[in-house]
Each structure stands twice: as C-alpha cells, then as structure tokens.
Amino acid sequence: MIKAGVLGATGYAGIETVRLLLGHGGAELVRVVSHSNAGTRVSQLYPNLRGICDMEFSALDADDIAESCDVVFTALPHGASKEVIPKLFEKGLRVIDLSGDFRYDDPVVYEKWYGQPHSDPELLKQAVYGLCELYRDKIADARLVGNPGCYTTCSITGLYPIVKSGLADNHSIIIDAKSGVTGAGRGLSLPNMFCECTETMKAYKVATHRHTSEIEQELSHAAGEDIMLSFTPHLAPMKRGIFATCYINLREKRTTEELVELYKDFYGGERFIDVYEAGSLPELKHIVGSNRVGIGIVVDERLGRAVIISCLDNLIKGAAGQAVQNMNIMFGLPEETGLENIASYL
Amino acid sequence: MIKAGVLGATGYAGIETVRLLLGHGGAELVRVVSHSNAGTRVSQLYPNLRGICDMEFSALDADDIAESCDVVFTALPHGASKEVIPKLFEKGLRVIDLSGDFRYDDPVVYEKWYGQPHSDPELLKQAVYGLCELYRDKIADARLVGNPGCYTTCSITGLYPIVKSGLADNHSIIIDAKSGVTGAGRGLSLPNMFCECTETMKAYKVATHRHTSEIEQELSHAAGEDIMLSFTPHLAPMKRGIFATCYINLREKRTTEELVELYKDFYGGERFIDVYEAGSLPELKHIVGSNRVGIGIVVDERLGRAVIISCLDNLIKGAAGQAVQNMNIMFGLPEETGLENIASYL
Amino acid sequence: MIKAGVLGATGYAGIETVRLLLGHGGAELVRVVSHSNAGTRVSQLYPNLRGICDMEFSALDADDIAESCDVVFTALPHGASKEVIPKLFEKGLRVIDLSGDFRYDDPVVYEKWYGQPHSDPELLKQAVYGLCELYRDKIADARLVGNPGCYTTCSITGLYPIVKSGLADNHSIIIDAKSGVTGAGRGLSLPNMFCECTETMKAYKVATHRHTSEIEQELSHAAGEDIMLSFTPHLAPMKRGIFATCYINLREKRTTEELVELYKDFYGGERFIDVYEAGSLPELKHIVGSNRVGIGIVVDERLGRAVIISCLDNLIKGAAGQAVQNMNIMFGLPEETGLENIASYL
Amino acid sequence: MIKAGVLGATGYAGIETVRLLLGHGGAELVRVVSHSNAGTRVSQLYPNLRGICDMEFSALDADDIAESCDVVFTALPHGASKEVIPKLFEKGLRVIDLSGDFRYDDPVVYEKWYGQPHSDPELLKQAVYGLCELYRDKIADARLVGNPGCYTTCSITGLYPIVKSGLADNHSIIIDAKSGVTGAGRGLSLPNMFCECTETMKAYKVATHRHTSEIEQELSHAAGEDIMLSFTPHLAPMKRGIFATCYINLREKRTTEELVELYKDFYGGERFIDVYEAGSLPELKHIVGSNRVGIGIVVDERLGRAVIISCLDNLIKGAAGQAVQNMNIMFGLPEETGLENIASYL
Fold first, then answer.
1. CB contact set of A57 (below 8 Å; sequence gap of 6+)
2. Is the pTM here over 0.90, yes or no?
3. What is residue B313's predicted lDDT score, i.e. its pLDDT?
4. Using CB atoms, which residue from B188, B197, B239 is nearest to D188?
C-alpha cells in the first residue's frame, strides 16, 4: 500500500486528488495538508466525504510528511510550492507537483511566461514532464513529476500525432479552448461568482496564457523544431471540462479517415485516449467524470485544413486523475488503478 | 457472478443501471434490451461507454432473458411492463421493477392514482416494496421487488422516523420537493428542452402526483394509521437530485438536537443514510453521484414544527442505485457492492 | 423630469435600479454613488451600459446629493444606510430604501430579527412600507419608503387575499421559497461561486430568515391578528427569480375556481399582479425580466388545503422595479412608467 | 403606424420578433400566423405575454395578410417559406425573411450548401441582404430582405473591417463560434433536451455548416476576391448568444491599438456595433438582451495574427432584432426604434 499525502488539499485539484485516492485501492491517504484549514475535518469543508474521509487537515510539516508518506501530491500556490518541494525531494519522497513549476525543460521559458526566475533550476532538471502517454518510461524512474495543466494535456494530446507525422504545417496551429469554471479554482473572485459566469461566455488572456508555453514545448519536441502557436482560452458556463478545437493546415492531401487511422495507430493501446471514428466527434458529456481524453478529427478538404477536437475532464485527466496515473506508473501499479470511473453522461 | 439484464436500457434510469452494473464487481451485465434500438451498440447511444460496454441492445425475448439472466431490472413504460414481468417471473427470474406497477399493497390504491385497474393483482401480492432500509428482510426473500420512486424514497426516508415516533401530528405533513430534470426521463418533450427549463422553476401536478400515494402508504405503515399528506413536486434547473423539504407539527416539545438523536438512533448503522448533526444541513452537491440520502433537521421552536430536509440523487438512490442495492440484498452480497461511488461535490 | 440618485449602485439591486432608470423616460439618473468605486465609470464595472451610461460613480456627499436629486434610492449595507438616510431625509429628499431598515411598524420587531436596536425609531415612524399594491395611498404622500424584500413581496402578495378573507386557518401558513443566486448579492462568498452553486440546491437560515418577520407583519395586518408562520428559503441554480410555494389550511370548503375568483377580485385592475386561471400555474420564465408577480392556486380538496404559487423577478418586482414603482407613485407618474419590459421567456 | 405580421410566430425567432414588435412604438402587430397553433392565444403558448398579447395565432391566409399588413416577417421552415413568400411579394407586401432562402447573390451557392436548387431564382435577385450596417441604403429601397443568420451576422461584423483593409491574409481566416441553445430552435430534439446539453459542449457540422457560405459571400465582397474560410460551430450550455473567436494572419505588422482604431473608424457612428478599447474584450453578458454586437481585438504580435472576438444575442441582432432594424430602415423610422433594450448583464 502506497502511503500518499496531498498538500494544498482544499483547492479543487487537491480535493479531487483526495477523492480519487480514497477510492484507489492501491494507495492509502495518510496526510491532507492545508495551511488555512489545519484542524478542520476534511468532511466539514467537503461534506460529500462525510463518513468516508473524516481525517483532519494538518498544517505543513515536512518532517512528518517525509516520515509518513511515500509520495506527495502538491497542489500549492507558487510561493508555497517553491519552498516545500525541494525540502520534500531531499528527504527522498516522490513528488507529483500539480503547479506549473516543474513542467519546463528550460528555466528561461519558465521565466518568460511566469514573469520571474525559476526558484530551483537544478531541481527542475530532475523533473519529468508527467504526460503519461508520452513519457511513461521516464516517469517510471522519476522522483519529481511536473503534472501537466488541463489545457495543456488536452491540446498536446490532440495535436501530437499530426505534428509528429510531418504531414502538416506546424506553424499554422490554432487552439481554441473552452474551459469549465472549476479550471479557475476555488479562490474567491467576482468573475467566478455564479451570477457573473452563468449564461455567458468570455475569452481571456488571449495570446498570453501561460499554458501556451507548455504546449509549444511539447509540440516542438514532436515536430523536432521550434513551434509557436495561437492558444485562446475561454470560460464556458459549466463546472468541468476542457474542449479544445484545434486547427492545422495540411501540407499533403489527407482524408478524415486517413488521419483517424494515423491517430489510432499512434495511440494504439492507450486506455485513456479514445480516438473517435470518422464521422463522430467527442462531446464533453462523453468523458467528464472519467480519466479519458476524447479525440475526433475532421479534414476540411475544401481548405486543406484539419480540425481536431480534443476534450477531457480538467479535474481528472487534466489534474488529479493524471497525477494518480503518474503515481501508478512511478510505483509500478497497473496504470488504470483507481481511475476506472465511467463518465456519467448525465 | 450474478447474471443481470436490463430492460428499457436506453432510458435514463435504465442506462444508469447499466452504468452501475458495469462497475459492480459481483454482477455481470449480459443483456441490454431496447425495443426501439435493437441492433445498436450501447456505446453509440451513450458514448461515455465506448470501449466499456460495446454490447448491442437486443429486442425483448423473454425466453432468451430467462435462460441467460438470474435477475432483470425492468425500466419499461407501463404497457410493456405489464406484459413482460409476469412472463419473466413465471420463468423463475428475479425481477426488480423500476416502474410504479409493483409498489402497492393494495390494487385499489394503484387504480385510484394510475387511473386504471392493476393488470395483475395476484402478482402484486408477491411483490415486496424495495425501500432497502425498511424492508431488507423481505427483500432478501423476494422474487419481485417494486423499486420505489425517486420522490418517494427521499420523502419516506426523511419522514419515517418522526412519523413512527408518535411525537408529531401525522396529519400535518407537507412535502415540498424539487427535482432535477433527469427525473422527467429521456422522452422528447417541449417543457424539458434546455431553453424551456434552464433559468426557471415550476411546480407541477400539484396535489395529484402519483408518488403521493406511495409516500402515504409507507408513512401510514409507520404511523399505524391512515395518513394523507400534501406533496408538491417542482422542476429545478439541474440534472440530478431530489431535494425534499418536509414540514410536520410536533405534538410535544422537542429540540433539534433531540430529533437528530431520534433519527441517528433509527438509522444507526445504515451506510446509505446520513443524518446530519444539529446545525448543519445536507445540500444536493453533498450526495449527487452517490447512493446516499442526506437528512437534516431543524425544529422551529417558535412554531412547534419540525422542518426535515431530505435529499438524494434521483438516478442512484432514487432509481438505479437502490435497484442494485436490492439486487445485492436478494443475492446475499454486501449491500454496498458496486455502490461506493463518492458524490463528486464539483 | 425627476432627478434621481442611486446610492450603493454597484450591488445587484443598485445596478438594476440604474438600468431601469436609464430606460425610464420620466426620470433622469443624475448621481450614482459607490464608496469603493468612486471615479470609475459605471460602464467599466457593467459593460452592458457602455455608451448608455458613461457617468462615473461618485463618493457619497450628502450635500451634493441633496442639491442635485429629488429622490434617492439607497441600496446600502446596514451600517452605511443608518448614517446617511436621516441626513438625506432632513435635507428634504424623498428616499426609497432597499435595505431592511425602514420596513417595520415596530422597532422591537426589528431588534428581535436584526439583533440590534433600530438606529432611528423616530424616523422609522415616518416610513411607509412600500408594497405598492397594498399601500399605494400612503406611498403617494411618503417621503421615506421602506422598499420590501424579494421573498417578502412574493410571499405577501401570494397570501394576502386568502388571509384577509378569513376563509383559512391563518396559523397554518408554510412558505417554501426558492431563490435565484442574484438574491445573495454581489459580495464575494464561496457558497455563491459558480462551481459551488450550479447543479445543486440547499435550504438556508431555516426558521430564522429575517424576511419572516416582514411577512408576518403584513399578513398580521391582513388577518387582524398576530400571525406566525414557517418560511424556508432555498437557493436554486438560476440567476433570477423567487418562487414561493405557500400552504394554508382552509377552514371552509372552497374549490380552486372559487379561490381564483377571490384573488381576481382582490387584485382587480392591478397591472403587475397576474392571477392565473384555475388549471394553470405561473413559472419563473413567465415573469423574469418583468415587474410582475404571477400567482396560481390549487385547492387540494382531499386535504382541505390551498397551495398558492407566487413568483417574481427578485431584482425587479422584488427590489429595483418595485422601488421605481414607488417613485412613480410618489411623484404622480403613471405607475407603469419605465416598467413595461416584457418577461423574456427565453 | 406600420402594420406588421409574423409568420411562423411560435418558433423562437418568430416569438422574439413578436416580443420586439409589442414594445416597438412605431409598428403594430396585426397578425401572428402559426399553422399548427391556429386558434390558440399567443399568451397560452408564451405566458410571458399574458395581458400583453392576447391575440390568437391564425392559419396562413395570404390574402388576409396582404390586406391587413404592410410588412411581414417570415420565420418559416424552408418548404413553407418558398410557397408563401412569392405570393406575399406579388401582393405588394414588404417581406423580411428570417430563413436562409433569400440571403444569396448566386443561386448556385445556395444549391451547393442547401442541397437543392433555389425555388425562385428570379425573386432571389430582388432580395437585399439585410445586414443593416453594410447595406443600409439598399435595404431602404428593398421589398424583400434576406435577414442574415446569427452566426453570420456575428462573424461578418467581426471580420469585415480587417478583410476590407487589405492588411491581412484573407485566406487564413478561421472562425470558432459558440452558440447558445436557442440557436437550435424550438423543435423537439433529443440533443437539445436539458439533460443532454447542460454541463457539456460539442462541435457540430464541422466544415459543413450552411452559414459558412453566407460568411464567405460577404467577406468576399469585402476582400474583392473569393474567400474560403473555416467555420466551426459549437453548442454551449446557455440559452442565448453567439460568441465568435476569429483568427486572421496579418500581412503587415500592426498593434492591437491600430486595429482597434481601424475598427472604430469603420463602424464610426454605428449604434449597434460596439468596438472595445484595446485591453478590454466583450463578453456575452455585456450584450445579451440587446441588439448590439460587441467586438474586441487582440493582436498576437509574436505570431503576427489578429484574434477578433465578436458576440451578439442570436435571437436579437442575430434574428428578430436585426429584422426589426431592417423594418425600421425600410419604413424610414429611426433605426433604433423598439431596439433600445439594455443588455441585462444579470
């Protein structure tokens, strides 16, 4: 039984990690850390856990964590994260970090998009990018995993095969992404109040969202050259889900069927990536509640452009679910352990 | 491994039963019957089941069902139901019926509320009312279970202990219930179109809803005398959930704490009934996605009236979840098998 | 042209007053006051007013208000309200107060429900309760109007005729009310974040909500005796609307048709109160966006109980619309001036 | 007083036209035609109009319409439309058609996208495309106006100035559009049931939606050459609104401020087109409920690409509002008559 702790457990990604661990089977949740709620029972803040998780949030105590846990999930704000992760790492813990801090190959890119130097470039070198389907082998040996963002996982998964194929103009990529409101987290903010975000839609951080850099990094690996792309995030009036509509110009003529084939080959036995047949497309209700990515493809032959739909549950495959999948890989468990929830559709 | 079939599997209660059985562990889904969709793969209609349930809907064939299944869940419209259930019953199958047909002690009551004579009063006598927490012993021996309605389970569970206690005026009961739209089913209807039921609320079938009779039947048992009560259903703009606010006048002075105690005693070890401490109340997000009923109590000492909040997920504890719980009881499995999903809160 | 100011104009009731005044025709909006946003253009906070209201919020300056305005709408928190209203009143302004401070006949009742002594009992005596359909004549002569709350207007309007008729047991009243989230205002609060209140429902302040006392005050007037009643507010996942389901036991046998007749007689020529024919009931989408109250009645003859549905738009007839209606009455304008918006249904 | 009739008045675009005409001031609604609801009062189907429009739907009678009306709005399905419009046109009526039938310069384009030959190519020649801000002069003299679609108005308005400017690569256009569910109309359909489309999102008719051809037609006019573009419609869980995110590659370096300037120049005095300052972007809640288009621009200088946000209320500026605006132009009324509703924000 893996002993797991969750730091920053009151936020939405943190508590989703808690929820998944409680039903995991191969891991035991032994610590839930929340600075501001230390001493409160988890089930007081999240009464869906009444009778299921009646442990208390504790304050952060790195020594205690190191003694009691084999692995920690850190879902902390940047400041807190940079203090605590090196300490836990030194003590020999495996760390799966849900923040943006350990997702970069190059601290310069981090600095450019986060507006401050990386706090620990040495440690960054030891981190593995936790997109399970791409880096499974490295993750197995990693002691520090930078768990990808929600927009990121969705976009990269949707575009990786076509970019890697060389069939498309990798400089023509546009990703138009729509997110549910849990993506904005649990912090109080006027724009995320019910009356401010139901029955409306907006785009935000157009051309400047940090996840752009993560997507560019990974698709550049796929392309074997530096790629820059457009990424436009939108907020839609729903709780969960990322729905990314990706556009890329084809350099050679291909049909929808041929690209579907390409994707099915690429993702062959992947349990959590579902490539739809030509003529059908994923919708959020097909995957929300599960750890899956749904991918659908339409080639617009009139224009020589592929439209690729990619969608996932931002709190599961886009955060907590992928984090647990990373844990499973790191500890040699079957990758789907604790992640077999079926999307609810309704 | 119990072999299970679901009849009427395309409706919302039917497909939720399918979903729960797919993750059950102790039962195997061997038939999914849908007259109108015979030959179609389940996952075509419900793509959340892609790769998880790729069997096809079959047309109804009682002999085939009888041979292949140990138990069938019937989620059929009234007409179809009355034809097929006697046939399956005769063939020795256990039947858990999600319609209203087998929920009554007395066919006269059925006729009064359903506007037609009961089609099989003899068989009705052999049916057991499937409210698990009240009739566990009888259910264990039953071959035909009338699975309670969603409003019904919620209301009865919320009021049973106080009615049974004799502390209240059992003729003063008012149940004001609010339902999510899945309660209206999958049939096409203008009032259930998105644009007609989002951002609005209505009451319907005021003083005439059929579930009234079920609630009266069971609370009359609790009271040991005939009870009539007000039941007002409302439609609220959400997918899942029944939220019942119940009012009953106390005949003796009691505090909130005392009634909470009474309820905690009554429901002692029940895994799926969660009585909240005085000062806290259940909300739908605490229970939707789980098989739980949340119950909270406030005594209005100024008026000598108890207000009892009871809520559940209408598709789980209000339909498919309770049906599976009934199956577990009938087959001697631990009652919670396949029903341990944690409410998602988000 | 009436010169009007709005104090506390950034809140939801305040800005709705602004919006109604901008389309009023007989009144001109000359001051919008917001302490915390002084100097900001109204249309920066509420871009729906771009090009329509580009004035700036100003800090509160009672002298300036007194000079520039004929009437002020105060939508301030309690503290601010009690300072400023006496000052404005002294200066000869007409004041329509949207807070709870000037809605009571008796400061003792205020103190009991608000937990502190009334700050100006003398001024309270001069205030008129602004439920237009009941106190039209007094309002015409008033200089200070206590504009009723949203739950209050809905509940009183729904019950007044039956209570006044003497046909019912006025001690049996139960009001089960459901509110949209704008009712909770614009203040940041975790429970009103989108992800915390969509797809769920809760009851709150059961047996203790302050509006209870307002409803009791007015229905006691109708009854000619002191009445106490149950009032249970709920939060539903929608922006606007109060939907009150009211229960009252009949002392004499009456049919639905007879009670509808009684209500139609009582509300005869009222433009903003719409009593539905027997057999039909109002829904929120029938009235949201308008200044109307929709009322529907069902007599449950089995139980001798009337169920009365009353609903309105909490920001219009439940706040800003009624406030403007009060202004119209006070200044001798046709009562419907600026209030003829048709509910949008969609 | 213009005498107006609405044909196909029960659909969502039809009833919105009715609602706008009822509050218009310069026009009188004299006929509301609905084949399937002839004899029913309008307010029975749409109780928001109780006491406001108690006329009955009538069956279609072209002679009666011709005698009683000066102008008709036709919101009919294709079949019905092609029968009745020529007849009404011959009788000298002005016709504003909300269907797709009279929006094309070239019947060949119509045939290509609608899959059937145009039924009346001669009449098509006499029709004017009713995008008011572009064709105001022609509309003034027109007797038949093809009222643009919702996606269309939003997309064209958003892209016209940049395309016309010659600054951009007109062959690089991608429009990613999100629609509320009223856009799908009132017809019964499973995918538009509440439970099927709340809390989810989907793309549909990718690369094949008919509105593509309308957008291409108009932007080709702007460009002075044939343009083909990508248009991807999505369904989002909200009632009203089109939110189009448009991408176009710049051929010359320009800043956001420069493009905003270009747009402000182009739309100079337009009352219903609101170009946002650099640094701010429109959201649906800023415009839903009004006849406005909100336009915002961000230049991604890193990529040399402009991202243009355009949004509107699909039932107002995207259908009924623009139709009324067309009527105002055709009859020489101030263009904003009856269209001054302020977006509600809340």
1. A9, A10, A32, A33, A34, A37, A38, A39, A40, A41, A42, A45
2. yes
3. 98
4. B188
